[in-house]
């Protein structure tokens, strides 16, 4: 696919380019730093806020006039910081950065100001703005609840105005948080600005303002006797679930450096960012690597998006009144004009699922959100996560290029990456999470045969259990249900001699869960059904864990002869109940996976009154919730469990015809 990456000289629209790259340089005044800074480093906020102008019409900030007036102030601050040694900076300012909970970052930014490497300035600004947003959120929570997710809403909040003053917040909004101002955070994090388009002086000014905010906050805390509490960082859990691509070697990274120079996926103005990201990975600066790379993935995908949907104007930053083309829109099913988005078809399902998994799904790592909002400890960013992002980026660079990349794609270190990318399946969509839950629950239930048991003759001595009549009745009902479902199960997993033991196996559930279901753009009915199915699975797992815990405890008490007569009777009732509870729970798990497969197909064919179906599923959920209550070690209501299960199996058997109709419609 031909993409005009060489011809793109900027991703900033003319008005945005003017605001960021020219407006703040129009006034040539030399501003005296002593006007806004005392000898001991105190920031004179009133003198700074005098450079913020307001519209006569509604007294909102006049961003154009304000940026023009603040330009010389920013340059003065930049020159001032350049005149300081690192030791002077530490003595004068480090105390005022403590409120951010990441003081080392501001030392890094100070170092960057000294060498003025363009990618370093952009990286420093991205890290600074995310850290500042997190810290401002902590301040917000001194007064308010439920911190706003968006920076612009946070900066416009009454809570921060109470702490810092409205004039101070308006100064900040000129630089970040408003699409009408410089909007430095969004322009960088969404991959619109190239390295040379971000003036160094704005980075210096935000460093300066952050110290000034620390001074104001200290005064507020002393006055109110409040204590600032920092929210804990978000940590990536279950890193093994994020392990998709093989570990990147130095050879792979060296080839990647060649690739990005040739690929049309990479905008040439953004090439320094790509090179800096690969260098950061080599240097084990994994957070820096991902912070640099994510906006470039967005920029490359934006180029692909605008090419495939024939809307080249959407490549540039939009005006405040128009929509930015960001990941959210690029990954959506439809464009803003309701036409079908062509990008998913071009990227293909595996790449789309990877992007949704790592960026969007609520139970996924949501890397870009968490990094850009300051929720992650940058010093502890795991190599495993960075490895996946870099590897995926390499596959896109390989796939979308005008050059003949066959030799690269077949290279011994690149081909495994391409193979992994081409067969990726979602791991964090609710469908995938349900499959994971089912398999975890299955493993738990399959531990039951290993539970310590008292001899069988003890169980048969209980009045009312002679011959295990209840167990036999339940097993017969389960067998009937299985026979109806058999045609919708994988082949060769059914035995007429013993359908319960031979069908309701771990292997069957593994095979069912391995059935591929497209997770992209699941219909709303499917998502609603999924919520109930996941709740059912959760309850089944809790029942299993409670049974395991109760069986172990009661067996010890039995062997130690510490159970009273009633407790012994109840324990033996439990052991008898386990005989039918195990196949019942396994049956429910099979039903969950079959419903997942077939309801998805039925919904896609619009053949399904899912409200009536939800009612049935909720009745199954009610059964499993009651089971959790009755099998709780503190309750041990095993007689009630028998009656409850009898009613549930009758209902499931009655509904089997209805479910069979659904499955026939689906197939």
From TrEMBL:
DUF4209 domain residues: 132-212
Membrane-crossing residue ranges in chain numbering: 584-603
Keyword Transmembrane in annotation: yes
Keyword Acetylation attributed: no
Superkingdom of the organism of origin: Eukaryota
Keyword terms of this UniProt record: Membrane, Transmembrane, Transmembrane helix
InterPro entries referenced in this protein's UniProt entry, alphabetically: DUF4209, ERMARD
Name of the protein in its database record: Endoplasmic reticulum membrane-associated RNA degradation protein isoform A
Source organism per UniProt: Patagioenas fasciata monilis
Organism ancestry: Eukaryota, Metazoa, Chordata, Craniata, Vertebrata
Gene: ERMARD
């Amino acid at each position: 696919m031909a993409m005009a990456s060489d011809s793109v000289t900027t991703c900033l629209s003319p008005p945005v380019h003017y605001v960021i790259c020219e407006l703040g340089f129009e006034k040539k005044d030399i501003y005296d730093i002593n006007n806004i800074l005392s000898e001991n480093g105190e920031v004179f906020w009133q003198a700074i806020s005098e450079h913020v102008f307001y519209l006569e019409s509604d007294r909102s900030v006049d961003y154009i006039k304000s940026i023009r007036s603040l330009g010389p102030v920013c340059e003065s601050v930049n020159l001032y910081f350049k005149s300081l040694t690192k030791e002077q900076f530490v003595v004068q300012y480090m105390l005022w950065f403590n409120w951010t909970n990441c003081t080392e970052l501001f030392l890094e930014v100070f170092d960057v100001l000294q060498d003025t490497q363009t990618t370093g300035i952009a990286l420093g600004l991205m890290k600074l703005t995310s850290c500042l947003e997190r810290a401002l959120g902590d301040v917000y929570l001194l007064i308010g609840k439920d911190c706003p997710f968006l920076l612009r809403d946070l900066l416009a909040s009454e809570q921060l105005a109470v702490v810092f003053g409205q004039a101070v917040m308006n100064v900040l909004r000129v630089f970040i948080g408003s699409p009408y101002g410089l909007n430095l955070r969004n322009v960088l994090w969404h991959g619109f600005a190239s390295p040379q388009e971000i003036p160094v002086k704005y980075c210096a000014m935000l460093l300066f303002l952050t110290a000034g905010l620390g001074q104001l906050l200290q005064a507020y805390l002393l006055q109110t006797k409040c204590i600032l509490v920092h929210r804990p960082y978000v940590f990536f859990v279950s890193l093994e679930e994020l392990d998709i691509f093989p570990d990147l070697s130095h050879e792979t990274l060296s080839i990647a450096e060649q690739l990005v120079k040739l690929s049309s996926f990479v905008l040439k103005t953004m090439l320094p960012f790509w090179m800096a990201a690969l260098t950061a990975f080599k240097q084990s600066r994994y957070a820096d690597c991902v912070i640099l790379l994510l906006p470039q993935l967005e920029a490359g995908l934006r180029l692909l998006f605008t090419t495939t949907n024939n809307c080249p104007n959407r490549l540039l930053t939009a005006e405040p009144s128009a929509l930015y083309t960001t990941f959210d829109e690029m990954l959506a099913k439809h464009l803003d004009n309701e036409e079908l988005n062509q990008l998913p078809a071009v990227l293909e399902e595996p790449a789309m699922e990877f992007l949704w998994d790592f960026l969007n799904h609520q139970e996924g790592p949501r890397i870009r959100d968490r990094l850009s909002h300051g929720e992650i400890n940058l010093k502890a960013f795991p190599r495993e996560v960075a490895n996946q992002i870099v590897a995926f980026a390499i596959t896109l660079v390989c796939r979308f290029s005008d050059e003949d990349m066959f030799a690269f794609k077949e290279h011994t270190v690149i081909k495994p990456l391409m193979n992994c990318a081409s067969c990726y399946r979602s791991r964090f969509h609710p469908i995938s999470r349900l499959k994971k839950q089912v398999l975890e629950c299955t493993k738990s239930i399959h531990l039951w045969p290993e539970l310590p048991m008292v001899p069988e003759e003890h169980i048969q001595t209980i009045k009312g259990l002679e011959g295990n009549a209840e167990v036999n009745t339940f097993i017969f009902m389960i067998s009937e249900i299985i026979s109806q479902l058999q045609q919708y199960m994988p082949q060769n997993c059914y035995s007429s001699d013993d359908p319960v033991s031979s069908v309701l196996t771990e292997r069957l559930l593994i095979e069912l869960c391995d059935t591929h279901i497209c997770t992209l753009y699941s219909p709303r009915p499917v998502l609603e059904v999924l919520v109930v199915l996941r709740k059912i699975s959760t309850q089944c797992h809790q029942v299993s864990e409670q049974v395991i815990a109760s069986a172990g405890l009661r067996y010890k008490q039995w062997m130690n002869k510490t159970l009273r007569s009633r407790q012994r009777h109840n324990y033996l009732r439990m052991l008898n109940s386990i005989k039918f509870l195990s196949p019942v729970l396994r049956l429910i798990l099979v039903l969950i996976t079959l419903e997942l497969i077939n309801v998805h197909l039925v919904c896609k064919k619009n053949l399904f009154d899912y409200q009536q179906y939800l009612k049935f599923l909720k009745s199954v959920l009610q059964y499993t919730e009651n089971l959790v209550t009755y099998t709780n070690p503190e309750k041990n209501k095993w007689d009630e469990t028998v009656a409850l299960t009898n009613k549930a199996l009758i209902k499931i058997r009655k509904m089997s015809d209805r479910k069979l109709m659904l499955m026939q419609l689906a197939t």
